Amino acid sequence: MRKNIVAGNWKMNTTLQEGIALAKELNEALANVTPNCDVVVCTPFTHLTSVVNTVDTKKIGVGAENCADKAAGAYTGEVSASMVASTGAKYVIIGHSERRAYYHETNDILKEKTLLALANGLTPIFCIGEVLEEREAGKHFDVVKKQVEESLFGLSSEDFGKLILAYEPVWAIGTGKTASAEQAEEIHAFIRKTIADKYGKEVAENISILYGGSCKPSNAKELFAKENVDGGLIGGAALDAASFMGIITAF
Ligand code: PEP
Fold this sequence. Notes:
The structure is a single chain. By secondary structure, this protein is of the alpha/beta class. The protein has a single domain, classed as Aldolase class I (TIM Barrel), CATH 3.20.20. It has helices at residues 16-30, 48-54, 81-86, 97-102, 107-119, 132-136, 140-152, 157-160, 181-199, 201-206, 217-224, 241-248; strands at 5-9, 38-43, 60-64, 91-94, 123-128, 164-167, 208-212, 231-234. It has an 8-stranded parallel beta barrel with strand order 1-2-3-4-5-6-7-8, surrounded by 7 helices. Helix 2 links the parallel strand 2 (38-43) and strand 3. It is globular, with a radius of gyration of 17 Å. Phosphoenolpyruvate binds at residues 9, 168, 173-174, 212-215, 233-237.
Protein backbone atom coordinates (compact mmCIF):
# COMPACT_ATOMS: atom_id res chain seq x y z
CA MET A 1 0.00 0.00 0.00
CA ARG A 2 1.07 3.58 -0.56
CA LYS A 3 3.02 5.47 2.07
CA ASN A 4 2.02 8.51 4.06
CA ILE A 5 4.74 11.15 3.70
CA VAL A 6 5.37 14.58 5.18
CA ALA A 7 8.14 16.41 3.33
CA GLY A 8 9.54 19.84 4.13
CA ASN A 9 10.75 22.28 1.51
CA TRP A 10 13.09 24.82 3.08
CA LYS A 11 13.35 26.83 -0.16
CA MET A 12 16.08 29.51 -0.09
CA ASN A 13 15.98 29.86 3.69
CA THR A 14 18.52 29.30 6.48
CA THR A 15 22.27 29.67 6.49
CA LEU A 16 24.18 26.42 6.79
CA GLN A 17 24.45 26.88 10.56
CA GLU A 18 20.73 27.65 10.91
CA GLY A 19 19.88 24.67 8.74
CA ILE A 20 21.98 22.32 10.85
CA ALA A 21 20.33 23.68 14.00
CA LEU A 22 16.86 23.14 12.51
CA ALA A 23 17.77 19.60 11.43
CA LYS A 24 19.12 18.87 14.93
CA GLU A 25 15.94 20.15 16.54
CA LEU A 26 13.76 18.04 14.30
CA ASN A 27 15.95 15.00 14.86
CA GLU A 28 15.65 15.41 18.63
CA ALA A 29 11.89 15.93 18.41
CA LEU A 30 11.57 12.67 16.48
CA ALA A 31 14.01 10.69 18.62
CA ASN A 32 11.34 9.19 20.87
CA VAL A 33 8.48 9.24 18.42
CA THR A 34 7.49 6.69 15.81
CA PRO A 35 5.60 8.76 13.25
CA ASN A 36 2.81 7.24 11.17
CA CYS A 37 4.43 8.65 8.05
CA ASP A 38 7.79 8.94 6.33
CA VAL A 39 9.51 12.23 7.09
CA VAL A 40 11.65 14.06 4.52
CA VAL A 41 13.42 17.41 4.58
CA CYS A 42 14.46 19.05 1.32
CA THR A 43 17.19 21.59 1.82
CA PRO A 44 19.39 23.93 -0.21
CA PHE A 45 22.22 22.11 -2.01
CA THR A 46 24.81 23.66 0.31
CA HIS A 47 23.18 22.02 3.35
CA LEU A 48 22.68 18.47 2.07
CA THR A 49 25.84 16.75 3.32
CA SER A 50 25.64 18.43 6.72
CA VAL A 51 21.96 17.62 7.18
CA VAL A 52 22.54 14.00 6.11
CA ASN A 53 25.27 13.83 8.78
CA THR A 54 23.10 15.52 11.42
CA VAL A 55 19.92 13.46 11.31
CA ASP A 56 19.10 9.81 11.76
CA THR A 57 18.54 9.08 8.09
CA LYS A 58 16.54 5.96 8.96
CA LYS A 59 13.95 8.36 10.38
CA ILE A 60 14.41 11.48 8.30
CA GLY A 61 15.05 11.29 4.58
CA VAL A 62 16.98 14.16 3.06
CA GLY A 63 16.37 15.66 -0.35
CA ALA A 64 17.36 18.50 -2.65
CA GLU A 65 14.94 21.12 -3.96
CA ASN A 66 16.03 20.84 -7.57
CA CYS A 67 18.59 19.21 -9.86
CA ALA A 68 19.97 19.96 -13.31
CA ASP A 69 18.42 18.75 -16.54
CA LYS A 70 21.87 17.71 -17.78
CA ALA A 71 24.03 14.86 -16.50
CA ALA A 72 27.39 16.67 -16.29
CA GLY A 73 29.64 19.13 -18.08
CA ALA A 74 29.93 22.82 -18.87
CA TYR A 75 26.79 24.08 -17.10
CA THR A 76 28.23 26.62 -14.69
CA GLY A 77 26.30 26.90 -11.46
CA GLU A 78 24.17 23.81 -11.98
CA VAL A 79 24.01 20.83 -9.62
CA SER A 80 23.43 17.41 -11.15
CA ALA A 81 21.32 14.54 -9.86
CA SER A 82 24.48 12.45 -9.39
CA MET A 83 26.01 15.23 -7.25
CA VAL A 84 22.85 15.31 -5.13
CA ALA A 85 22.96 11.53 -4.72
CA SER A 86 26.64 11.66 -3.78
CA THR A 87 25.77 13.68 -0.65
CA GLY A 88 23.63 10.85 0.69
CA ALA A 89 20.38 12.63 -0.18
CA LYS A 90 17.64 10.28 -1.39
CA TYR A 91 14.97 12.65 -2.68
CA VAL A 92 14.70 15.63 -5.01
CA ILE A 93 11.83 18.05 -5.56
CA ILE A 94 11.21 18.52 -9.28
CA GLY A 95 8.89 21.03 -10.91
CA HIS A 96 8.07 23.20 -7.93
CA SER A 97 5.85 26.06 -9.12
CA GLU A 98 8.52 28.59 -8.15
CA ARG A 99 10.97 26.85 -10.52
CA ARG A 100 8.33 26.69 -13.24
CA ALA A 101 7.42 30.38 -12.86
CA TYR A 102 10.73 32.10 -12.06
CA TYR A 103 13.20 29.84 -13.91
CA HIS A 104 10.96 28.94 -16.84
CA GLU A 105 11.13 25.19 -16.33
CA THR A 106 8.90 23.58 -18.93
CA ASN A 107 7.28 20.15 -18.88
CA ASP A 108 10.05 18.97 -21.26
CA ILE A 109 12.85 20.21 -19.00
CA LEU A 110 11.16 18.57 -16.02
CA LYS A 111 10.95 15.32 -17.94
CA GLU A 112 14.76 15.35 -18.34
CA LYS A 113 15.27 16.17 -14.66
CA THR A 114 12.99 13.30 -13.65
CA LEU A 115 14.87 10.82 -15.85
CA LEU A 116 18.22 11.92 -14.42
CA ALA A 117 16.95 11.78 -10.84
CA LEU A 118 15.67 8.24 -11.35
CA ALA A 119 18.85 7.17 -13.14
CA ASN A 120 20.79 8.28 -10.08
CA GLY A 121 18.58 6.46 -7.60
CA LEU A 122 16.82 9.55 -6.26
CA THR A 123 13.10 9.63 -5.53
CA PRO A 124 11.55 12.60 -7.34
CA ILE A 125 8.90 14.55 -5.48
CA PHE A 126 7.23 15.83 -8.63
CA CYS A 127 5.09 18.96 -8.21
CA ILE A 128 2.03 19.87 -10.25
CA GLY A 129 -0.67 22.47 -9.78
CA GLU A 130 -2.62 25.28 -11.34
CA VAL A 131 -2.49 29.07 -10.92
CA LEU A 132 -5.49 31.03 -9.67
CA GLU A 133 -6.79 32.08 -13.09
CA GLU A 134 -6.75 28.46 -14.22
CA ARG A 135 -8.68 27.37 -11.11
CA GLU A 136 -11.21 30.17 -11.58
CA ALA A 137 -11.68 29.22 -15.24
CA GLY A 138 -12.28 25.59 -14.21
CA LYS A 139 -9.15 24.48 -16.07
CA HIS A 140 -7.31 22.94 -13.10
CA PHE A 141 -8.04 19.34 -14.10
CA ASP A 142 -6.69 19.90 -17.63
CA VAL A 143 -3.62 21.74 -16.32
CA VAL A 144 -2.48 19.00 -13.93
CA LYS A 145 -3.28 16.29 -16.48
CA LYS A 146 -1.07 18.00 -19.07
CA GLN A 147 1.77 18.46 -16.56
CA VAL A 148 1.69 14.77 -15.65
CA GLU A 149 1.27 13.56 -19.23
CA GLU A 150 4.00 15.70 -20.78
CA SER A 151 6.65 15.18 -18.11
CA LEU A 152 5.93 11.71 -16.75
CA PHE A 153 3.88 9.54 -19.07
CA GLY A 154 6.96 8.53 -21.08
CA LEU A 155 8.20 6.59 -18.04
CA SER A 156 7.91 2.84 -17.75
CA SER A 157 5.36 1.76 -15.16
CA GLU A 158 8.24 0.52 -12.99
CA ASP A 159 9.84 3.98 -12.99
CA PHE A 160 6.52 5.78 -12.61
CA GLY A 161 5.93 3.71 -9.49
CA LYS A 162 9.08 5.20 -7.92
CA LEU A 163 7.69 8.75 -7.96
CA ILE A 164 6.02 10.80 -5.27
CA LEU A 165 3.59 13.39 -6.62
CA ALA A 166 2.76 16.66 -4.91
CA TYR A 167 -0.36 18.58 -5.90
CA GLU A 168 0.27 22.21 -5.04
CA PRO A 169 -2.27 24.79 -6.16
CA VAL A 170 -0.08 27.82 -6.82
CA TRP A 171 -2.69 30.15 -5.29
CA ALA A 172 -2.26 28.34 -1.95
CA ILE A 173 1.55 28.37 -1.76
CA GLY A 174 2.83 30.77 0.86
CA THR A 175 -0.42 32.73 0.75
CA GLY A 176 -2.10 31.39 3.88
CA LYS A 177 -4.98 30.25 1.62
CA THR A 178 -5.37 26.48 1.77
CA ALA A 179 -7.38 24.38 -0.62
CA SER A 180 -10.28 22.89 1.31
CA ALA A 181 -9.95 19.21 2.12
CA GLU A 182 -12.78 18.60 -0.38
CA GLN A 183 -10.98 20.54 -3.15
CA ALA A 184 -7.78 18.60 -2.44
CA GLU A 185 -9.58 15.24 -2.41
CA GLU A 186 -11.40 16.01 -5.65
CA ILE A 187 -8.25 16.74 -7.63
CA HIS A 188 -6.12 14.06 -5.96
CA ALA A 189 -8.75 11.49 -6.93
CA PHE A 190 -8.69 12.89 -10.47
CA ILE A 191 -4.88 12.61 -10.61
CA ARG A 192 -5.03 9.02 -9.37
CA LYS A 193 -7.69 8.18 -12.00
CA THR A 194 -5.51 9.78 -14.72
CA ILE A 195 -2.63 7.54 -13.61
CA ALA A 196 -4.89 4.47 -13.46
CA ASP A 197 -6.05 5.11 -17.03
CA LYS A 198 -2.43 5.10 -18.22
CA TYR A 199 -0.62 2.64 -15.93
CA GLY A 200 -3.43 0.60 -14.37
CA LYS A 201 -5.08 0.51 -10.99
CA GLU A 202 -2.19 -1.07 -9.06
CA VAL A 203 0.36 1.62 -9.98
CA ALA A 204 -2.22 4.34 -9.29
CA GLU A 205 -3.20 2.92 -5.90
CA ASN A 206 0.43 2.62 -4.79
CA ILE A 207 1.64 6.13 -5.60
CA SER A 208 1.68 8.73 -2.83
CA ILE A 209 0.08 12.05 -3.75
CA LEU A 210 0.94 14.83 -1.30
CA TYR A 211 -0.91 18.10 -0.87
CA GLY A 212 1.06 21.36 -0.64
CA GLY A 213 -0.05 24.92 -0.04
CA SER A 214 -0.22 26.62 3.36
CA CYS A 215 -0.50 23.30 5.16
CA LYS A 216 -0.07 23.77 8.91
CA PRO A 217 -0.77 21.87 12.15
CA SER A 218 -4.27 23.34 12.33
CA ASN A 219 -5.43 22.05 8.92
CA ALA A 220 -3.21 19.00 8.32
CA LYS A 221 -5.48 16.51 10.08
CA GLU A 222 -8.51 17.36 7.97
CA LEU A 223 -6.49 17.25 4.72
CA PHE A 224 -4.70 14.00 5.60
CA ALA A 225 -7.99 12.34 6.54
CA LYS A 226 -9.02 12.35 2.90
CA GLU A 227 -8.65 9.04 1.11
CA ASN A 228 -6.47 10.32 -1.72
CA VAL A 229 -4.32 12.76 0.27
CA ASP A 230 -1.25 10.83 1.35
CA GLY A 231 0.58 13.60 3.16
CA GLY A 232 1.98 17.03 2.58
CA LEU A 233 4.76 19.04 1.01
CA ILE A 234 5.33 21.78 3.52
CA GLY A 235 7.00 25.14 2.92
CA GLY A 236 6.76 27.81 5.62
CA ALA A 237 5.74 25.48 8.44
CA ALA A 238 8.75 23.24 7.79
CA LEU A 239 11.08 26.02 8.96
CA ASP A 240 9.87 25.63 12.52
CA ALA A 241 10.51 22.23 14.11
CA ALA A 242 7.46 22.43 16.38
CA SER A 243 5.10 23.31 13.51
CA PHE A 244 6.59 20.62 11.28
CA MET A 245 6.18 18.10 14.11
CA GLY A 246 2.57 19.26 14.48
CA ILE A 247 1.99 18.31 10.84
CA ILE A 248 3.88 15.01 11.12
CA THR A 249 1.80 13.99 14.11
CA ALA A 250 -1.43 14.86 12.28
CA PHE A 251 -1.15 11.29 10.95
C1 PEP B 1 5.75 24.78 -1.00
O1 PEP B 1 6.49 25.69 -1.32
O2 PEP B 1 5.93 23.65 -1.48
C2 PEP B 1 4.67 25.07 -0.06
C3 PEP B 1 3.68 24.22 0.03
O3 PEP B 1 4.76 26.24 0.65
P1 PEP B 1 3.82 26.72 1.86
O4 PEP B 1 3.58 25.52 2.75
O5 PEP B 1 4.59 27.79 2.55
O6 PEP B 1 2.55 27.21 1.25
